[in-house]
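Sanity check

After download, print the first record. It should look like this:
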Amino acid sequence: MKGLLLKDLFVVSEFVRVLTLMAIVFIASMMAIDGFSVIGAMISLLVVSLVISSFSYDDLAHWDSFAATLPVSRRKLVASKYLFLLLLGVLAVVFNGLVSVLFAALQPGVSLAEQFVTGILISMAACIIDFVLIPLIYKYGAEKSRMMMMMVIVIIFGITYGGAALLKMLNIGTDWITLPILIGGIAAAFLASLLISWICSVKIVEKKEY
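Expected structure tokens:
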């Protein structure tokens, strides 16, 4: 498992440099216009998207065909991708924590704890997007799944904003959506999507012929 994780880390190492530069430029530009609210979301999406990039590199190198000859079970190959994604999710939380500290320092009225919790929730939401995508990538390949990634993001945001619009149309207030309820809802969605995604990916890979 350690070797599989190191393989993915080495594969995306070059992209990390570009990603870091993009993040610095993006944070600087958002600071200039006081756009702190979107920094956490963009950082999470950028960091977590690295797992999708690892699939693209695997396809280019025909990694799956080679991995099928190794004394490693297909279940373990799938597990390494999910573990890699979870590690990237932790990294996104760390980045969001640093941004939260910066945000709170520049705007003393802002709650550091609230910003940090928001960063964690955003990182979990970004992971949920990848949980939806990973089985699709195993089924159709990384390149075909790029368009699916945009569709998944659009559908998720569409459901979110559509639900909010529906509540407004029905004159149903959102005061009941407290932070603990929001945390519980996203945590439940995170765990459920991880379990369903894992089961689907294992079934797809175990039936796949290379």
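If your output differs, re-run the checksum step. Summary of this record's structure: The chain has a mean pLDDT of 75.
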